[in-house]
Amino acid sequence: MSGGRPGESRRRAERARLSTLVRGAVLLVATSLTIDTVGGHMSDGPAPSEASESSSSTPTTSPPPVTLVPLASTPGAAPVITRVETTDPVVFLTIDDGHTRNPEVKAALEELGVPVSLFLLDGPVQADPDFFRGLPDTLVESHSRTHPDMRTLPEEGQRAEICGNADMLERAIGRRPVLFRPPYGAYNEATTRAAAACGMRAIVLWEVSVNGADVGYRTVPEFRAGDILLMHFRSTFVTELRALADRADEAGLRFALLEDYLVPDTVPDSGG
């Protein structure tokens, strides 16, 4: 993806260093490594809670981490995560689907300097690939072709949804996704195998979700370092983003790019 922010060259150099460190760390970690707060099966959607409506233009970004924890690895199955094991004071913004494409989104992301992982469907990207290519400091990941409940599909059908979406995104955006988010957060054992077969390094759920004025929490009703946050492209996105940035700031947290922590070796030097 195009776009960047001040200090991007420093981030690129740091990413390269971290990629080397991670590759070395992975060689030393057994494939049965278990990370309590990272791997494992998670429940579906969280319960809602009231959200703030205030706005802020305070910079909310963070440089890449100093240390990284390799993802848990089980041969033939992608690990499932809702948060990242880190002591850095960061949270990770993710946005799903892509049906509503408001030109104000780009300006808001640039103003707030928030890096984002986009989990996109076939239809919106095919309809308007330039919109997503033009968003600053973003990477595109897989969200399936048609947004089914993956649990209703046989494993072969799940592979078709994930691999087909990844193929299309690689053609349209120029980078092949390595993370997958199942629609509705719904998955089963077959999903973990299908995702791995399609080259996905992890299945990414979330700890915090934003739905209009409601903020839902999966486990703990507060923002914590390492939490993955879920938003959707909708008409109220800019208002919701400003409120979310305020909440993160009040919690003493900044936004960082999820891929910088999970899969830094897949992050292009251009930052998108």
How would you describe this protein?
It is a single chain. The protein has helices at residues 8-28, 104-112, 122-127, 129-133, 155-173, 189-197, 237-250, 258-262; strands at residues 80-81, 90-97, 116-120, 138-142, 179-180, 202-204, 208-211, 214-217, 228-232, 254-255. It has a single domain, classed as Glycoside hydrolase/deacetylase (TIM Barrel, Alpha-Beta Barrel). The longest helix is centred in the first third of the chain and has 21 residues, at 8-28. The N and C termini lie close together (4 Å). By secondary structure, it is an alpha/beta fold. Residues 1-7 and 20-59 have low confidence and may be disordered.
Tally of DSSP β-strands: 10
Report how far the terminal alpha carbons are from each other: 4 Å
Radius of gyration: 17 Å
**In one word, what is the shape?**
globular
